[in-house]
Design goal:
Layout: H1 2-6, H2 8-11, H3 15-37, H4 39-46, H5 65-84, H6 86-136, H7 147-189, H8 191-198, H9 201-211, H10 215-238, H11 240-245, H12 249-301, H13 308-349, E1 370-379, E2 384-394, E3 398-403, H14 409-416, E4 424-429, E5 432-433, H15 439-444, E6 446-449, H16 460-464, H17 473-482, H18 486-489, H19 509-523, E7 527-531, H20 539-552, E8 557-561, E9 573-578, E10 581-586, H21 588-594, H22 597-605
Helix pairs in contact: 3-6, 3-7, 3-13, 4-6, 4-13, 5-6, 6-7, 7-8, 7-10, 7-13, 9-12, 10-12, 10-13, 12-13, 17-19, 19-20
């Protein structure tokens, strides 16, 4: 239960519910025992074995409490039987039994009612914390992790932790107290018989503990495999067009089925081990009861040291121990499974982001002079993508980055927006290292339009409002007009309120890209980063959007990453890159005059 300490700050806000649960469980355990004990006087009344007491007992001290309670009950039974007959006495005994069982079940419900708020509250807060961490962790984290595994942790694993919280309280409060009260009462009835029972308990406990020894490892294996098939599902949904176009349905189907088969095998092993707990503990309990019947029966029939009513009540208490013992064995398995799940959940929560804001990070709200990339080098894995790269982007100027695929153009966009950190050198804005800035304030200064149109399953309006969440409908429409998107949006059935489907798949590629541009336009930041922003547009849309982008970039600092060189001819400076280094720099006409790589790229694209 080590993980409870690590989850304590999630449990703390709901600790009052834990205290209530413990309080009601104490009452439940007490009344469970009393309910069973109440069977004894009823049986004695039925068989006329009640001790006759005609004088009202007098309380003397705590040492005589047992005899005082017994004599008081027997006095009540004797006087009631004499005055009203045995049937009335039996009725009173039945009412007593019903009342005690009612209270027992009422307190059980109240205990469960209380713990519900704790379990679901921790579940909610854990999921919120993981989601917050998922958003906060750098993009590099997800290049190594499978998304389906993250989904498995935030759904299945967190739910497993929730279930184990109830098991923990059952393990340390409810069931142990029920057993404790029952054993104390059993000792008061017959010490000799109880000692006999205890000879069997260590044997039963040893067998049950051996069954549950490897449960954590088996549970962890099941949860990891769930992450694998969820990852396969997530990749399938994301790449369905490619899978179908390459007739790869069978390959992915086989991959998914192999994972679910492993999950099937692991789950069977785990559940069979769990399922073994209940029948094993019940069988061991029945063996104990059988031994009790033989030994206790001889005390009633031969030694005459125990009354029939006391023996039946004792048997009821002994059997009552079985259920909590069974629940404890089940709960111990849940706790082990919860422990494995908690390890996977806490692995995410304990991950330290390499891009955390430094203490006393600077809040920057304006951009006044230039962006300076000074002597930077960067690598994703082993090979450098950028080597000693230097570039200055003055305020109000547009700088275009061109070059073949893999030359490092998009990496510049990732580094300036601080999705990744440079390995050496520094990037500064107005002379301040971007590592010294709050990430939120840095990204407020920038608008980003990516090569892939990343849209969400929501309305056009809400997708565009990511740029400025308090914008009016008129501002949204104006941004759509600038991005040349209003022409198709106004024709849609619900206009800007139209839902665009998962990833915007109800729209064409060009329409999706224009919405991405509208989102950046609405944000209206001082720095604009366009990463292949027009790559998905047809020729006519590209021409219209290019005019809109040029209008938007007037007097605005822009870093434009372009594949189509026709879109950046008017840039203030064009930087030609090759293998992470600058090979040429200048305006469109200057670079053509150099008769170098830029001119070759222009000729390859064959435009005038």
């Amino acid at each position: 239960m080590e993980y409870l300490k690590r989850l304590s700050h999630f449990i703390s806000p709901y600790k009052r519910y834990a205290y209530l649960n413990i309080f009601f469980n104490v009452l439940y355990a007490l009344f469970s025992t009393l309910a069973m004990v109440s069977l004894m006087p009823m049986i004695n009344v039925l068989f006329g074995e009640s001790k006759k007491v005609y004088e009202k007992p007098i309380y003397k001290s705590i040492n005589h409490l047992k005899s005082y309670l017994e004599d008081s009950l027997n006095y009540f039974i004797t006087t009631t039987t004499d005055n009203d007959g045995p049937q009335r006495t039996l009725l009173y005994m039945i009412i007593l039994i019903i009342s005690l069982f009612l209270l027992k079940n009422l307190f059980n419900y109240l205990a469960l009612f209380s713990i519900t708020f704790l379990r679901n509250g921790v579940l909610k807060d854990l999921r919120n914390a993981i989601y917050e961490k998922v958003i906060a962790l750098p993009i590099s984290y997800y290049s190594e992790k499978k998304k389906g595994d993250i989904i498995a942790r935030i759904s299945g694993d967190v739910n497993e932790v929730k279930n184990s919280l109830l098991a923990v309280l059952e393990l340390i409060v409810k069931e142990p107290l029920t057993i404790l009260f029952a054993i104390i009462t059993m000792f008061t009835i017959s010490t000799k018989l109880t000692i006999f029972v205890f000879l069997f308990i260590p044997i039963a406990g040893l067998i049950i503990s051996r069954i549950g020894k490897s449960l954590k490892r088996k549970s962890d294996r099941v949860q990891r495999e769930q992450g694998v098939f969820l990852s396969t599902l997530e990749e399938t949904l994301g790449g369905l067009k490619v899978i179908k176009s390459f007739n790869a349905e069978k390959k992915f189907n086989d991959k998914f089925q192999q994972s679910t088969t492993r999950f099937y095998d692991f789950s069977n092993t785990l559940l069979n081990r769990q399922n073994l707990a209940s029948p094993t503990s019940e069988f061991l309990g029945i063996v104990t009861i059988a031994a009790l019947l033989w030994y206790g029966g001889s005390m009633v029939l031969i030694d005459k040291t125990l009354s029939g009513g006391a023996f039946i009540g004792y048997m009821a208490l002994a059997y009552q121990i079985l259920t909590p013992a069974k629940e404890i064995s089940k709960a111990s398995y849940k706790v082990k499974a919860g422990n494995a799940a908690a390890d996977r959940v806490l692995e995410i929560l304990d991950t330290v982001s390499v891009l955390e804001d430094i203490p006393n990070a600077i809040e920057k709200n304006d951009f006044t002079t230039e962006i300076d990339l000074h002597n930077i080098s960067f690598k994703y894995d082993d090979d450098l993508v950028l080597k000693d790269f230097n570039l200055k982007v003055p305020k109000g100027k547009s700088v275009a980055l061109v070059g073949q695929s893999g030359s490092g153009k998009s990496t510049i966009a990732n580094l300036v927006t601080r999705f990744y950190d440079v390995n050496s050198g520094q990037i500064s804005i107005d002379g301040i290292n971007i590592k010294d800035l709050k990430q939120e304030s840095l990204r407020k200064l920038m608008g980003l339009v990516t090569q892939d149109s990343i849209l969400f399953n929501d309305s056009i309006k809400n997708n565009v409002l990511l740029g400025k969440d308090n914008a009016t409908d008129d501002e949204v429409i104006e941004a759509l007009k600038i991005a040349n998107a209003w022409e198709f949006v106004k024709e849609l059935p619900k206009g800007i309120e139209t839902n665009i489907g998962d990833s915007g798949n109800k729209l064409s590629g060009g329409q999706k890209q224009r919405l991405s541009i509208a989102r950046a336009v609405l944000k209206n930041p001082p720095i604009m980063i366009l990463d292949e922003a027009t790559s998905a547009l047809d020729t006519e849309s590209e021409r219209l959007v290019q005019v809109a982008l040029e209008n938007m970039m007037k007097n605005r600092t822009s870093i434009v990453i372009a594949h189509r060189l026709s879109t950046i001819q008017n840039a203030d400076e064009i930087v030609v890159m090759q293998k992470g280094e600058i090979v040429e720099k200048g305006t469109h006409n200057q670079l053509l005059a150099l008769n170098g790589m830029y001119k070759k790229l222009v000729e390859m694209q064959s435009f005038e």
